[in-house]
Design goal:
The complex is a heterodimer of chains A (about 800) and B (about 625). Chain A is mostly helical and about 800 residues long. Chain A is built from 27 helices and 8 strands. In chain A, the strands form 3 sheets. In chain A, strands 3-4-6 form a 3-stranded antiparallel beta sheet, with no helix packed on it. A 3-stranded antiparallel beta sheet of chain A has the order 5-7-8, with no helix packed on it. In chain A, helix 3 runs antiparallel to helix 4 and helix 16 packs antiparallel against helix 21. The C terminus of chain A is likely disordered. Chain B has about 625 residues and is mostly helical. Chain B is built from 24 helices and 3 strands. A 3-stranded mixed beta sheet of chain B has the order 2-1-3. In chain B, strand 1 and strand 2 form a beta hairpin. In chain B, helix 8 packs antiparallel against helix 11. The longest helix of chain B has about 35 residues. Chain B starts with 6 loop residues before the first helix and ends in a 6-residue tail after the last strand. Classes of the chains: A mainly alpha (about 800), B mainly alpha (about 625). At the A-B interface, strand 1, helix 5, helix 6, helix 8 and helix 26 of A face helix 6, helix 12, helix 14, helix 17 and helix 18 of B.
């Protein structure tokens, strides 16, 4: 019954958070009148994460390993699942708070809890002087809990809890030093940009639910059951054509990917990540490098069956990833802030991962996620160590020659550097190469010819750029002479063991973990590929055959054109390995030539004017993307908001309509009030005026003016007349209407009646006579005999007929 | 006598008794008035918790109790609850003691009258939620107005007179039209059946002609749309909120606004489904505009209270949109979002009140950096803000998620372009974060710019007592919504199914009329039991003119009326069906996946009626 303990993994850090944020403080204040001591705070925080790591390892090494060792390729492997309780259950929607520990989430929780533990330990040194120590560790633990919920979730909605939960912690930790307005703004920017992604995530979820009727991964994924038969209904739903002739898988996948773009900082939603460096450095290492930002990659790997159902969606993912990788690398060239360089590097490396999962090389993408978690966390922690030594400044132009003073940090940094540059045998070499190889070999139906090769070229350029700017960073910081002012220089010191310890552990892992996923040559084993195989859909470089479990590519019928086969002949793989290694070395070499002795004068001269300056400014100002967004989105938003409030709300709706109505009512009331002021002589005046008006109206039939009239309109070839005898006494019963419609000057007679009978007049007293247009005369006359006075008045007017009518008589 | 039948009248009686008692206390006894007020409102709250013990989830009304009230008019004092009103009643009784407690320091003049006004307001709100008689509902609906008018007008801010009059007139305009519609239905029903009554349970099964349904729905909808408030009928709300004292704002946002959506669900839609059906796209459009517009305008505010007031326009847009989706998740989500909105927005207003008591300003520019001064307050404020922004795990998420989900998956028969509406509503998720976090940053983060903010005291014990239940419920409702959703589900499903049944009947009648099937089935005239002898009336009408334009809104002719009457008859014969819970499984079908759930089985004996004669002790 070990699997019933999965919930402990996220719960333990959450308990730590509750203690450090609420419970501990309340209890300590009531009991001792003070907050818990620092030792207490970090003891609780660290032990909760380490305990989560312990439970994870225990579960993975025990029941999960047992399942895995009995698993045979082509068979389903459910992993361990646990449903804690039914969270939402309304109508057709049933969402359990359920967890799933399979090989993919197992890898993730090990990364998260292990790297997380190290960063917690590191934080005790880095944040030692922080007054809000408890809050810091509380948020950090809260983040761990949310992140573990995200990766362990068994359905998309629970994943969304973690998805937004990590966003909240990111918000709180970026703005941790909130008395700087800029930090708080950076946190808000991160949250809002992520919310744009989350909006798309929701839409993607709804589309999936409508198509399949569930959001559970176990049911979304077309697993083969024990007898080997596959429920294909989910597949059929993915393959069904939806908007714009594309499959449902494309649209659902696209919206979910936009969500991933927000969380994992891809074009066009990457802009928050560089600003997120406002947070404490360990936070950048944990959240904005190792774990949270990789959630998008994880989500796509988790939904590999969905993306495998639409080659278009895969192409989009890979394309966006490749472009992000290259552009972020270019933006990193001219940055002068230690952490900003690393931030753009993270964006770029995440782009690599998306290319990996986008071309169907899921193992490669997840592998890079793993190695990146170690070396990038290490790079950030090293940055923290350096900035700690430099009295908090991160300006690399003021560093230099630190290799002698920060020996341990330097050693660790070199390991990370070689890893990110892709130098054998460091971890980044293997994972990056697997992605490059996957892109090189990728080809799918519906893609433009050579799309995989294009991706490979872009990625290779990005890799070259990475090697260059990372080495530039290294040379500016560690070689040459120290360029800091004297006071700072005097304080330079190696960090305490609580900080260097995690650095060295990460460096050791950076050296080793690459061997988990060795390239598919010379019969080398790819342990990671084998481990992840049960949780992913398509094959990897390690397995040239297309895996059939889940049946997604079985027989090539269901998803024949979605099967991506990212593997190449052995010779090509050797060639690609050599090229990748060469690119890494070349990048380092160029950086060494330019920056070996600190900031280069050549570069300074070249960028002083002309094209060099333009290029430098573009890179330094990050292609002005922030400014463009500001002009196109942020400012118009403010402007529209103000306009809507001031004009639409206050003026049109409230002033004109609401208060306008009130004003009219009030004005009318005032008028009536003025009429009835209680003065008799005014009443008599009104009386007289009224009497005069009545008199005038009743005697209106003066010669020359006619009180009656008529109107007419043409209805097809008929003309309809409408008599208007006005208002007043003449409307009493007994009035007689006579019409002359044919224009002969006499009242029209009924054609069927005897002509001498006066009461056989046609249209007698008919207020609405109708006559065919061609029969209507030029002039029409109406007579009216008043019932009261008995006098007859007449009204004559010229009738204009429409052109379509038959013409006048 | 049914067990628990005494609870509903007692819930009304306790706060009323409290109000009377407090009126008898001597003037100036501040503590006594507040103490009694809190005591009686707490007693009401605990009494309402008893509802949970007696309530059995199921369709139909429970604990129904009725007295003859004005026999000559056919109006009754009839109370009852279902799974929808149950939670709104609890929200009301939960909010009231908190509100009184929160006002302890803020209200210094006319304390006695203040507490009395709030208790009378509670009576009005509870009565309106409980009423199962249209006339009774109308009375309580108007009773609510008066104390609120006084709360704004006496204890309000500088422009309190303007705001209170605007509030009253605005609400009156809508409710008078509703009264006209009530009279119309009353007269129509009486003319058709010979029995004049305003009993909701009778009238709800009475089929008006399509045209009449349209007009009556419009009249009801206007009253409720003003209360929601639906764009563009919302401008009374910011004024009322800004000028009202904190307690007034909390009740206004927490409970009073809910009557808009509640009125739609309880009265306007079940009684006039054809009108609701025809106007659904219009209301959906206005709701979506409200969601986005409210968010934009909230962002433009400098006065925090106004910002939160406009956020209500945005949040309640989700609710009014989702009820027209006619999916279980949409309607449930709408109700859930109302509960959550009551907690989070109430909490926000309370938090603003805390600051106002300390600083006597509500301008964003006057704050900044408060977190450093008031960390406990900041934590509370953060949770409430995030709850309002719909962070998963807090209450706001469940309601908004279900509401958007329900809208997105609505069938096009009920809501055309449902997906588009869903997507547009979902943008509210982004905008909500924009203005709420903007507000939070302006108040809590950044350096302390204003000197007066330097030594602000953190929350006092009383204030912590005010916020603790709210924060706890925001967390509880977010983490464990199952119980609430389960209790309301049968009521929601019966709401949808009876709506669909009645709509189907009306549509069929129209269809039959169009096809010129003049003769209604013979059985109908035999079963016409209570119809008044007015057959001569129909004979004078000319036979149906087939030339009528093929529009659903055409005037009603004799055969159509016959068909409708026939339908009404069947409805009357099947009246028990209302309580029988033959709710077909609604919501989207699940192609492919094995059906996880069976439609909830009818719970026998849930339609309990308790009848007491007038003079009985």
């Amino acid at each position: 019954m070990q699997e019933n303990l999965i919930y402990l993994i996220p719960l333990l850090p959450l308990c730590g958070a509750v203690f450090n944020l609420f419970l501990g403080r309340i209890v300590w204040r009531l009991a001792f009148g003070r907050d818990p001591s620092r030792t207490m705070v970090h003891a609780v925080a660290i032990s909760s994460v380490v305990a989560a790591f312990g439970v994870s390892v225990w579960l993975i090494a025990g029941p999960l390993w047992q399942q895995f060792s009995q698993w045979k390729p082509g068979m389903p492997m459910e992993g361990l699942t646990q449903s804690v309780y039914t969270w939402i259950d309304v109508g057709a929607l049933e969402i359990e708070l359920a967890f799933r520990l399979d090989t993919l989430s197992a890898l993730m929780i090990v990364i998260i809890t292990f790297v997380g533990s190290l960063i917690h330990i590191y934080s005790t040194g880095y944040m030692a002087d922080e007054p809000r120590y408890g809050a810091y560790f509380g948020y950090l633990n809260l983040f761990m809990g949310a992140m573990l919920i995200l990766v362990l979730a068994d359905n998309l909605v629970v994943m969304f809890i973690g998805w937004e939960g990590v966003g909240l912690c990111s918000y709180l930790l970026i703005g941790f030093w909130f008395s700087e307005e800029a930090n708080a703004t950076a946190g808000r920017k991160a949250f809002v940009v992520n919310r744009i992604g989350d909006f798309a995530f929701l839409i993607g979820m709804f589309l999936l639910f409508q198509a399949v009727g569930t959001l559970d991964f176990g049911e979304l994924r077309p697993f083969m059951d024990a007898e080997g038969s596959i429920d294909t209904s989910a597949n059929e739903a993915y393959m069904s054509t939806f908007w714009g002739g594309e499959r449902l898988a494309f649209w659902a996948g696209l919206f979910l990917f936009i969500g991933a773009c927000g969380k994992s900082a891809q074009i066009p939603l990457y802009v928050w990540l560089p600003d997120a460096m406002a947070g404490p450095t360990p936070v950048s290492a944990l959240i904005h490098a190792a774990t949270m930002v990789t959630a998008g990659v994880y989500m796509i790997a988790r939904l590999s069956f969905l993306y495998a159902s639409s080659t278009t969606a895969m192409a989009v993912v890979a394309g966006v990833g490749a472009l992000t990788a290259l552009f972020a690398a270019l933006m990193a060239f001219a940055q002068t802030d230690f952490k900003k360089v690393l931030a753009y590097s993270t964006v770029s490396q995440l782009g690599f991962m998306f290319v990996g999962v986008g071309v169907g090389a899921y193992v490669a993408g997840v592998f890079h996620l793993l190695t990146h978690a170690f070396f990038k966390a290490g790079l950030f922690l090293a940055a923290g160590s350096v900035m700690h030594a430099m009295s908090g400044s991160g300006d690399i132009m003021k560093m230099g020659g630190l290799s002698k003073k920060l020996k341990l940090t330097h050693i660790a940094f070199v390991a990370y550097l070689l890893a990110i540059c892709g130098i054998l045998p460091f971890a980044g070499f293997f994972s990056k190469d697997e992605i490059l190889g996957g892109a090189f070999a990728a080809d799918a139906e519906g893609w433009i010819a050579g799309y995989g090769k294009i991706l490979w070229v872009i990625l290779s350029l990005a890799a070259l750029g990475t090697a260059f700017y990372m080495s530039r960073l290294y040379f500016l910081v560690f070689s040459g002479k120290l360029r800091a002012d004297e006071e700072t220089a005097a304080h330079v010191h190696e960090s305490p063991p609580s900080m260097t310890g995690p650095l060295l552990v990460l460096a050791l892992f950076t050296l080793c973990i690459g061997f988990l996923g060795m390239p598919h040559v010379a019969g080398l084993p790819n342990y990671l590929g084998q481990w992840l195989d049960p949780s992913l859909v398509t094959s990897t470089l390690s397995q040239p055959h297309v895996s059939v479990h889940g049946g997604l590519c079985a027989g090539g019928e269901l998803l024949n054109n979605a099967c991506v086969k990212p593997h190449s002949p052995e010779g090509t793989i050797y060639g690609l390995l050599a090229v990748a290694l060469g690119i890494g070395l070349l990048g380092i070499f160029i950086a060494w030539k330019i920056y070996a002795k600190g900031p280069s004068e050549k570069v300074a001269n070249a960028t002083e004017s002309g094209a060099g300056k333009t290029a430098y400014n573009l890179s330094y100002n990050k292609f002005y993307v922030d400014e463009i967004y500001d002009r196109l989105i942020v400012r118009p938003f403010r402007w529209i908001a103000t306009a809507l409030y001031e004009f639409a709300d206050r003026f049109v709706i409230d002033l004109i309509f609401v208060n306008g109505l009130g004003f009219i009512t009030k004005a009318f009331g005032r008028f009536i009030q003025w009429l009835q002021n209680g003065q008799v002589h005014r009443y008599i005046g009104f009386l007289l005026a009224g009497a005069a008006a009545v008199f005038y109206l009743t005697t209106l039939n003066a010669p020359g003016s006619s009180p009656i009239s008529f109107s007419y309109h043409q209805d097809g070839d008929q003309i309809v007349f409408k008599a208007d005898i006005g208002a007043g006494p003449q409307t009493a019963d007994g009035g007689v209407l006579r019409w002359d419609l044919d224009g002969n000057g006499k009242p029209d007679l009924d054609p069927d009646a005897a002509t001498d009978a006066p009461d056989t007049e046609r249209y007698l007293s008919d207020p609405n006579p109708t006559m065919a247009a061609r029969e209507v005369g030029h002039q029409v006359t109406l007579w009216y005999t008043d019932p009261v006075f008995g006098d007859t008045v007449s009204f004559t007017r010229v009738v204009t007929k429409a052109a379509t009518a038959g013409g006048a008589k | 006598m049914m067990l628990g039948g005494w609870v509903l009248p007692a819930i009304l009686a306790v706060p009323l008794l409290g109000a009377i008692l407090i009126m008898l206390t001597p003037r100036g006894e501040r503590g006594l008035a507040f103490g009694l007020g809190i005591g009686f409102s707490l007693a009401t709250f605990f009494l309402s918790l008893a509802l949970l013990a007696f309530f059995r989830p199921g369709p139909g009304f429970q604990m129904v109790i009725e007295f003859d009230w004005i026999p000559s008019l056919g109006t009754k004092f009839k109370l009852g609850i279902d799974g929808i009103s149950l939670w709104l009643i609890l929200l009301t009784t939960f909010t009231t003691p908190i509100v009184i407690l929160s006002a302890y320091r803020a209200v210094t003049k006319k304390v006695r009258e203040f507490v009395v006004a709030i208790l009378i307001l509670e009576v009005g709100m509870l009565g309106a939620f409980l009423a199962l008689d249209l006339f009774l509902f109308y009375i309580f609906w108007e009773v609510m107005l008066i104390p609120m008018y006084l709360l704004i007008g006496i204890w309000g801010g500088h422009r309190r007179i303007y705001a209170s009059i605007k509030f009253v007139i605005y609400t009156m305009v809508g409710s008078l039209l509703m009264l006209v519609a009530i009279f119309y239905v009353y007269a129509k029903y009486g003319a058709e059946t010979g029995e004049y009554t305003t009993d909701y349970m009778r009238l709800v099964n009475f089929d008006l002609s399509p045209q009449a349904q349209l007009w009556c729905f419009a009249a009801f909808a206007l009253a409720f749309a003003i209360k929601v408030p639906l764009f563009p009928l919302h401008t009374w709300l910011p004024d009322a909120h800004v000028e009202a004292p904190t307690a007034g704002s909390v009740i206004l946002a927490g409970v009073l606004l809910k009557f808009g959506i509640y009125g739609f669900i309880r009265f306007a839609m079940p009684m006039f489904p054809y009108g609701a059906h025809e106007l659904a796209p219009l209301i959906a459009i206005l709701s979506v505009i409200g969601i986005i517009y409210g968010a934009f305008v909230a962002f433009a505010q400098d006065d925090v209270k106004k910002l939160v007031a406009y956020s209500s326009v945005s949040h309640l847009g989700f609710c009014s949109l989702a009820i027209f989706a006619m999916t279980t998740s949409g309607v449930s989500g709408s109700i859930y979002a109302m509960l959550s909105h009551g907690l989070t927005t109430g909490g926000l207003f309370l938090a603003i009140g805390v600051l106002y008591e300390r600083r006597h300003t509500r301008r964003l520019a006057e704050f900044g950096g408060l977190w450093a001064q008031m960390p406990v307050f900041a934590g509370v404020f953060l949770i409430v803000t995030l709850g309002s922004a719909g962070l998963p795990g807090l209450s706001g998420f469940i309601g908004e998620f279900l509401a958007i989900f329900g809208t997105f998956t609505a069938s096009s028969e009920h809501l055309p372009y449902a997906r588009l509406f869903g997507v547009l509503a979902a943008t509210g998720v982004i905008f909500g974060a924009v203005y709420l976090l903007y507000m939070f940053q302006k108040m809590m983060f950044g350096p302390i710019k204003v000197k007066a903010n330097r030594n602000l005291p953190d929350l006092t014990g009383r204030e912590i007592a005010v916020f603790t239940p709210i924060v706890a419920l925001i967390l509880l409702l977010g983490l464990y919504p199952g119980y609430i959703l389960k209790t309301m589900e049968p009521s929601v499903e019966s709401f949808i199914s009876s709506y669909e049944r009645k709509l189907g009947r009306t549509k069929k009648a129209i269809e039959r009329h169009r096809q010129g099937q003049v003769n209604a089935p013979k059985t109908s005239s035999q079963s016409r039991v209570r119809t008044a002898p007015k057959a001569g009336n129909t004979s004078t009408l000319t036979p149906a003119t087939p030339k009528r334009p093929a529009s659903g809104n055409s005037a009603i002719t004799a055969p159509q009326r016959d068909a409708l009457r026939d339908a009404a008859k069947r409805a009357r014969a099947n009246r028990a069906a209302l309580g029988a819970g033959v709710a077909p499984p609604t919501g989207v079908a699940k192609p492919g996946a094995a059906p996880k759930k069976t439609p909830s089985a009818p719970v026998p004996g849930t339609h309990r009626t308790l009848t007491l004669q007038g003079g009985q002790p």
